[in-house]
Amino acid sequence: MVDKRTVVAKAFDDWAAGTGYVSSIFAENMTWEIVGHSTASRKYASAAEFIAEVLQPFGARFSTDDPFRPVAIRQIVADGDRVVVLWDGEGTTTIGTTYRNTYAWFMTLDDDGKIADGIAFYDSISFNELWDTVRPD
């Protein structure tokens, strides 16, 4: 059996180091919900939909020299199939501003160590400001 905490921690470490992306552990049929009132808040029916509608346009708002990535993992808690990560992310936008936000991701992993379901919480005001003021390149 896969140690799910280790799988998630490695994906975040690789993302922070710029050697990988957390999407590498998304199951194809993953569902992802962004809670709150941000522009992106809703439930996504697949990894492809979440990547195309949120992650790609989000990432396109950042400089390639200093892309958005985790800068501090505050805590990772695992209980069975559930892994929760509280983390801070930061990056320089394409217009030269710095975007910072704190995230809480609640994930259920399948037996292969892939995220089957995720729920994300973050500061919607900061996210919306980024989404509305920085256009993807």
Description:
This protein has 137 residues and is α+β, with helices and mostly antiparallel strands. It has one domain: Nuclear Transport Factor 2, Chain: A, CATH 3.10.450.50. The protein is 27% helix and 39% strand. It has three helices and six strands, in the order αββαββββα. The protein has helices at residues 4-17, 47-59, 124-133, and strands at 26-34, 43-44, 69-79, 82-92, 98-109, 115-122. Strands 2-1-6-5-4-3 form a six-stranded mixed β-sheet. A hairpin with an 8-residue loop joins β1 and β2. The longest helix has 14 residues, at 4-17. The model has no long low-confidence stretch (mean pLDDT 97).
CATH architecture, by name, is Roll
CATH topology: Nuclear Transport Factor 2, Chain: A
Q: Mind describing the biggest β-sheet?
A: 6 strands, mixed
Q: What is the 3D form?
A: globular
SSE arrangement, N to C: HEEHEEEEH
Helical residues, percent: 25-40%
Give the strand order, joined by hyphens, for the main sheet: 2-1-6-5-4-3
| CATH first level | Alpha Beta
Write the SSE topology.
Layout: H1 4-17, E1 26-34, E2 43-44, H2 47-59, E3 69-79, E4 82-92, E5 98-109, E6 115-122, H3 124-133
Parallel strand pairs: 1-6
Antiparallel strand pairs: 1-2, 3-4, 4-5, 5-6
Characteristics of this structure?
137 residues; alpha+beta; Nuclear Transport Factor 2, Chain: A; 6-stranded mixed sheet; 3 helices; 27% helix
Quick structural overview:
The chain is of the alpha+beta class and 137 residues long.
